[in-house]
Amino acid sequence: MNPLLAEFVGTTLGVLLGNGVVANVILSKTKGNGGGLIVITVGWAMAVFVGVFTVASASGAHLNPAVTVALAVAGKFPWGSVPGYIAAQMLGGMMGAFLVWLVYRKHFEQTTDGDTKLAVFCTGPAIRNIFGNLISEVVGTFVLVYGVLSIASPKFGLGALDALPVALLVMSIGVSLGGTTGYAINPARDLGPRLMHALLPIPGKRDSDWGYAFVPVLGSITGGVLAALLYGLGSTMSH
Q1: Angle between helices 187-199 and 82-110 (to 10 degrees)
Q2: pLDDT at 143
Q3: Which stretches in the chain have pLDDT values below 50?
Q4: What sign results for the dihedral spanned by CA atoms 33, 176, 48, 162?
Q5: What is the pTM of this model?
Q6: φ, ψ for residue 74 (rounded to 5)?
Q7: Vertex 52, ends 10 and 91: CA angle to 5°?
């Protein structure tokens, strides 16, 4: 499979299953309604697992612009390939969100609260404080990317066997650090679906909260770069 197609497919699967579990837990009249944070974090961890192991051999399974940029900063991925990867990931995020809407559209109709409908697509803060929310995303993504760099095979990215540790890493971040902002830790997972929320004909929807949209993007890219720099420092010192 072409690496860009692989990134698109992997990100689509990840967001379909990840945002799918959110829809199942929070939308009205679903089988999983009221399942809670544990169900969501397990669902997202498994979503990452599926996304990574399906395309790891083709693209390294970044599925996240923060991971792609961090791997480039760490010297493990060519800068020339970064824009294509990010574009594929963003389109995958949009496609995954579209499929969640397609599957759950009758439940969107049954749900009255606009905030709940938005939360299926993208993250939002429990307490709105831009600086605090940014810190949450920086720290969460730092943990993700530092963990990924520690797992990743030196050649290209994540091997298929490395999918499970990454999934467990995402689950750990979700249950431990997800309480503040809903742990986007991935611009494609947040901005792509947020765009779909704005575009799709969802009855009774609110605005897409564009005032907050930069937080998951800036926070996760910053956290990823800091992790790559620390990882690089550690590697330099060990030589």
Answers
A1: 50
A2: 97
A3: 156
A4: negative
A5: 0.94
A6: -80, 0
A7: 20
